[in-house]
Each structure stands twice: as structure tokens, then as C-alpha cells.
Design brief:
92 residues; 5 helices; rod-shaped
């Protein structure tokens, strides 16, 4: 092993130079900050970066829409069956 080379760098660099798709792993092993490795990897693949940003935003918006629909449905049930709900007993 060469002087000044960390063990992770000595193992990762030859492997990732032969396997281009492993730069993400190389970035995680060589950087002190694992987020920097992710940023370096995504900067090489902008389409994948778009998906990484778009997917959580889509899931969050679906959750918000589901919460709004659930609240609206609960309000409608209470408004529609107001008198009947007063006499219902809990299920348990």
C-alpha cells in the first residue's frame, strides 16, 4: 500500500476504475461525508438526480392529498350521520 493512502482508498479505487457504475461506492468510501459521495454520484447522472428529487416530492404530495381526502370524508360522515353516530357504541 502506498504512503498516505487510506485502506478504503487502496481497495476502492482499482475496483471502481474497472467498474464505472461503482463510483457511488467509491465516493462513499473515500469521502469523510457520505452525503458528498451521493452528491458526486448524482452530479454525473442528472436524470437520476431528477428522479431522486422528484420521487420524495411526489410521495409527499400524495400523502397530503390523502390526508385532505380523509379529513373531508370524516367530516362528511359526521355531518351526514350526526344523529345516528350519537347512539353508536364503540367497536371494542
Amino acid at each position: 500500500m502506498a504512503r498516505g493512502v487510506r485502506p478504503a482508498q487502496a481497495l476502492a479505487t482499482p475496483f471502481s476504475s474497472r467498474h464505472v457504475h461503482c463510483h457511488f461506492v467509491d465516493g462513499l468510501l473515500l469521502s469523510c461525508n457520505p452525503v458528498q459521495g451521493l452528491i458526486d454520484f448524482l452530479s454525473q447522472y442528472p436524470a437520476l438526480a431528477l428522479g431522486v428529487v422528484f420521487a420524495p416530492a411526489l410521495l409527499e404530495s400524495v400523502a397530503v392529498i390523502g390526508a385532505i381526502l380523509g379529513d373531508g370524508f370524516s367530516y362528511w360522515l359526521g355531518h351526514r350521520y350526526q344523529e345516528a353516530l350519537r347512539t353508536w357504541r364503540p367497536l371494542l
